[in-house]
Specification:
Mean pLDDT: 94
CATH class of the largest domain: Alpha Beta
Number of domains: 3
Oligomer: single chain
Helix content: 25-40%
Low-confidence stretches: 526-551
Distance between the termini: 61 Å
Largest sheet: 6 strands, mixed
Strand content: 15-25%
Radius of gyration: 25 Å
CATH topology of the largest domain: Rossmann fold
Length: 674
Amino acid sequence: MKKILTACTKDCPGSCSIIATVDDGEITSLNGNPDHTYTQGFLCSSTSKFLKDRFYNPQRILHPIIKKNGEWERISWGEALQIAADKISEIILEHGPESILYYQGFGARSALRILNRRFFNLLGGASTLYGTVCGGTGQAGQEMDLGERISHDPIDHLNSNLIIIWGRNPAVTDLHIWKIIKKARKNGAKVVTIDPVKTRTARASDIHYQPKPGNDSYLAMAMAKIILKEGLEDQEFIENHSENFDQYQKILNDYTLEELAVKCDIPLSELEILANIYLNGPSSIITGWGLHRYLKGHLIFRMIDALAAVSGNLGVSGGGVSQGFDEFGFFDDKWAAEELAPHHRKLPMPTIGQAILDAEPPIKLIFLTAGNPVAMCPNSMKVKKAFKSADFVIMVDQFLNDTSQTADLFLPATTFLEDQDLLGAYGHHIVSPLNPVADPQGECKSELWIFQQLANILGFGNDMAGNSQQWLEKLADPILKKGINLENLLEKPQRIPGPPVTPYSDKQFFTESRKFQFINEFEMNECNQYSEKNEFTQDNFSSKENDSKIENIRDSGDYSLRLLSIMPEKWVGSEIPDKEMVKGHLELKVHPQILESLGLKNGDLAILESKSGSLEVKISSDPDTRKDCVSTYRGGWIVHNKCVNVLTEDMISEKGNGTPYYETMVRIRKLSDN
């Protein structure tokens, strides 16, 4: 029996360090590594159950397979690689390299995956992706304010008197920072959650505010306006370390406090309490992915940054506005060799379905790794149609999923338990080693091996050659220059020197002037083209005006409810457990007053419709759901009738090329209305 150190590569900010126990070649358990200074020996249930749910799951694909007459058939690696190489060569010869789309998903994130792009660049180029289905929007906003997005080290929140969790549910999505938040609370800090959904985090906080979805900008503006009205702003910071304050103040002056309270749907008395609590700093704001999911999400982040600046919470230990980290930031991206690609086109991930259908020259071959875009991208049926429009789809993964229905060739991939690699994180500054715990199951191969073998067949094998350790030496060069050698990196997790615990403590920002940039332009469209005429508030829901809006909800032609799809508690992304692998219904949470107006009750089946599609759902009466929203979970599959993204509209944010999932408006219809 032996113990081997590795780490989890799932799409999660924790990047948990793991101690795997191996007995006679079989992995018997996965446990947290207590020597990791951030994860500290804790594993989420998804990772602790990985052996049963994923690694040893009998549904895992262990051999190359090809689709013939609609059925999958096993083939050898030699056949599979030759077919893939022939298809690549054929497409390049007949249509050019841009007719190949490489879709690199977020299902696994580690250093060696930088080399996947190198392969396609060595081909002379291909169509790849820009934008993201998670962040991006907020990062763009913070870069406009700060020049560079740098979050506080998670441990710095222990120095906060107040922690505001804004649009995030760390009690489910980031248990490690939640542990730090709970410790800070035990030490006396107040915890406030701002979220339109009453999440597990919200229930465990001291105070929960449920603003109108997407109108968080107005909430931040109201708090700042109250601080300025009371003359409690940080005048020294404003005068000496910022620009555009006058324009920002003019934006605030365009609204009365009463108007801002109505727009964010929080009583003014509550906003005054929150603003004064926030002034009892240092106060940190931890922002979440929920804030990214709007067309103008960057404005939310800019107004939150401005609030922190006005209150004197920027560059202060225990303060700041923390969003996330770049998991690839410590690695050398030059090895992707973008300069070798004379023919290169980028398509937007947020609207990838339409982008493929509109592409000229057309996309003829799609090569996919670590992703399930049919389930996870908006407007799933359009994405499925787009993938089916390609002549050939090659998929590298461990399981068949919604996207595999469009695939022609499936190449079985290894997991983090079978690879050697290095792993950054988007929740902290620590890089962790991946060490192979067991031999690959069946005939599974690493992505690096697959691309190296294809390169050999296609004639540029020397440019992809090298074992994992040799490549990691090159990719980790920026880290090695900081005095940490590769042996250290592969031996245990390392907090990389350089990033500050408290960013901007010298009040020097990365903007051109080195000063903080207050937002100087602000224009909101009430978040969605459908929402303004149907806007109603929580507090006045029984008024005559809002009664007429309930009539609109009953009107079958009116899309009046905002669809919020949140992270489920039991899985990450679309890696759903076996018990979810059954035909069923999404559970849709709806306020009981809305149900009453529609003649529906708890447990009923109904049709949920958007401009993009429809889905049969199971109604759950929930008084904690806002009356202008419905909520459900994301990550379910079309094949099980549980994919919320058949409803979400495909669009792209104004800044940051993000995905505005929460701009989708829906209506509910009785089954009998069909």
